[in-house]
Amino acid sequence: xxxxxxxxxxxxxxxxxxxxxxxxxxxxxxxxxxxxxxxxxxxxxxxxxxxxxxxxxxxxxxxxxxxxxxxxxxxxxxxxxxxxxxxxxxxxxxxxxxxxxxxxxxxxxxxxxxxxxxxxxxxxxxxxxxxxxxxxxxxxxxxxxxxxxxxxxxxxxxxxxxxxxxxxxxxxxxxxxxxxxxxxxxxxxxxxxxxxxxxxxxxxxxxxxxxxxxxxxxxxxxxxxxxxxxxxxxxxxxxxxxxxxxxxxxxxxxxxxxxxxxxxxxxxxxxxxxxxxxxxxxxxxxxxxxxxxxxxxxxxxxxxxxxxxxxxxxxxxxxxxxxxxxxxxxxxxxxxxxxxxxxxxxxxxxxxxxxxxxxxxxxxxxxxxxxxxxxxxxxxxxxxxxxxxxxxxxxxxxxxxxxxxxxxxxxxxxxxxxxxxxxxxxxxxxxxxxxxxxxxxxxxxxxxxxxxxxxxxxxxxxxxxxxxxxxxxxxxxxxxxxxxxxxxxxxxxxxxxxxxxxxxxxxxxxxxxxxxxxxxxxxxxxxxxxxxxxxxxxxxxxxxxxxxxxxxxxxxxxxxx
Length: 561
Known about the structure:
With 561 residues, the chain is α/β, with parallel strands linked by helices. It contains 15 helices and 25 strands. Strands 7-6-5-3-2-1-19-20 form an 8-stranded mixed sheet. It has a 6-stranded mixed sheet with strand order 8-9-10-11-12-18.
């Protein structure tokens, strides 16, 4: 099993007739999935998603893949294949198209409709090529065949990429529900046929590789929902991903059966469900869906709200309801259903929301106490089946944290993929397929790119470190006016503390120390403002640390007159 190394060098030139695979996101994390394929000097990108920030990334809105390695090669890109319409696969597209608008987008009808709606907000009109399962398209030197896969959003596709270097299959996100609501199965006969032809490299979804057995059927949720609907006395509020059309279909069916009206809450939910309805993916009985504004005219027992925020996102509708910061106020007797997973890293935020809702008297139904969610990703039992069917010559686990990638690689090895042909890479690790063998060739830059408000990439790890210090320790500012000729203090020092838990008046003893130190340094001929600032920082830092055992950020300002 070839492992990545922190000290990998930049990869050499791609050998003639070889295929290069560079993951820019989605390996070592759940999100911002993006893989670049290179053959004969041309590039094909599969997916371009975003990652949502965690608590140690304060103030960040989104995290993008790092486009540095392809930025000077935008003209070499033949297209971006989008496997399905989830944010962690399409959310980064607007940011890449800002750099070159005419890169073609290739995807299924629903996927393209979702990304086009998103691009409208960025005022970009993309070039698109709509494909469906069973289609083969030549995209430059890449001969792409699209295969139906079942996932938690309709119209998901895997892609087989044939080049003279061999055939690579990228599964996208998939599972193998054998009773899908739309009857669209993961096309096992197609994968078996590709396996017979010879899959040289398989990139396979690892998200649930640690989960034993098989994922329950999506339709198992219906009876659970009906039980909840039968018991609910007042309003029912369902939180789901804004793209989980099948889950929302089951909620609509239950609402219809129990004589309730449904309102969608939240911009992305209203937009996506409108698209799904217009394209015929969501079947809505006439008169069932009403506008949120008309809810006041209906009795509580006839209302269902479908909103976003199932991951505890602070700005989404559900979190705001839990914090009493939304026009919809939770009252005793409301039922809230969290019809979603716990994405790794979001557990605390989700439980905080559950506790908040419970505090206002809601009955909260979630994955922990009822089967209101099934995963969208194949678990270990399904993956074993899949590898036996595909018989890949080389395997590269994708889409997962380290533990998921390793577990997925182990499953492949159990089914007979040779250990030395199993490649565990992480973001930026370059894998070359040459003469039928996949090997790690080197590493390129593939860091996090932070979106904060309108700025992309301006916030760095250093600024986040500063934000964490400010958030945890507060700030002390020191303002001093010095005479530029003698270096003597003629004004201040004025000391202000914010968020450090120390009163401004407590700094009196340190003011004398600062003056003393500045006097000494002036006698030594040190008058350069930067050096004076460093001196003040040291004096104040040591005093605060000795007196309070705290390490706030210290901001000295020296004005020369």
